[in-house]
Amino acid sequence: MMNDGISIEGPLDIDVAAIARINEAQFRGNRGSIPHAKKWISRLKSSFPIYQYYVLLVHGRVAGYVGWQLHGGFLREEPPVELEQIAFAQEFQGKGLALRLIEKSFKMVAEFLHQESPLAQQAVSFVWTYEDNAPALKMYRKWFNGEVRGTRNLYGKVEVMLSRIVPLAAE
Ligand SMILES: CC(C)(COP(=O)(O)OP(=O)(O)OC[C@H]1O[C@@H](n2cnc3c(N)ncnc32)[C@H](O)[C@@H]1OP(=O)(O)O)[C@@H](O)C(=O)NCCC(=O)NCCS
Fold first, then answer.
1. What is the pLDDT of residues 96-150, one digit of tens each?
2. What's CA 39's distance to the chain center, in Å?
3. Domain 6-167 is classified in which CATH homologous superfamily?
4. DSSP-based three-state secondary structure for 67
5. Which of 3, 7, 57, 129 is the most exposed place for a label (fewest CB within 10 A)?
6. What's the alpha-carbon Rg for the chain, to the nearest Å?
């Protein structure tokens, strides 16, 4: 734990119920049903290492989580790694915590990739977000330094993709 009471845990030692409560409150996909949120998260957790959850705790309480998803197999030279989902409980938003979680957790994902495949030189990290999600875009632009790389419309609203090439050996 750091001096300010913040710690980061994962990918396996995570509180699924705590993530489920945040997921249910922050996203429409499991809105109104903690059991569905739990089921979704525990299934993703069990697909480790393809999907990896990390949580940020403030004085031992789960404030937020991030899920990183690997794409395309283990042995690519430039594995694509998606920041598939991130959310913080309402009272922990706007405090700069998401960036800390992204930075720390990606180091752990990078370490895994580096160990798993000596061929992997750099990761193509990316994220999709609604173009009108101003807090998310503002925060993502601090880490995903690339320009918008594409758009899609899967959930009835336009999303944009930001990306960043991250050298793995140096991470
Ligand atoms: C998006 C999210 C993960 C950002 O994490 P965070 O730790 O709150 O990010 P930051 O503290 O760096 O805030 C980023 C910017 O958004 C603003 N912001 C954050 N939360 C906000 C909120 N609830 N309402 C309005 N503005 C907010 C911050 O003030 C900051 O702007 P600033 O740089 O001008 O001060 C978090 O707000 C969240 O959980 N949102 C709900 C779930 C979500 O949208 N996830 C992303 C899906 S792609």
1. 999 999 999 999 999 999 888 888 999 999 999 999 999 999 999 999 987 888 9
2. 18
3. Gcn5-related N-acetyltransferase (GNAT) (3.40.630.30)
4. strand
5. 3
6. 16
User: Is the pTM for the entire model greater than 0.85?
Assistant: yes
53 has which bridge partners?
67
Pocket test for ligand 1, best of 93, 130, 148 (most atoms within 8 A of CB): 93
SS3 state at 12 = coil
58 is written with which tokens?
Answer: 């403030």
Best CA proximity match to 106, nearest among 147, 68, 75:
68
Contact, 110 vs 166, CB < 8 A? Answer: yes
According to DSSP, the β-strands at 122-130 and 80-88 are parallel
Burial zone of 6 (CB within 10 Å; 0-12 exposed, 13-18 middle, 19+ buried): middle
The residues spanned by each domain of the chain are: 6-167
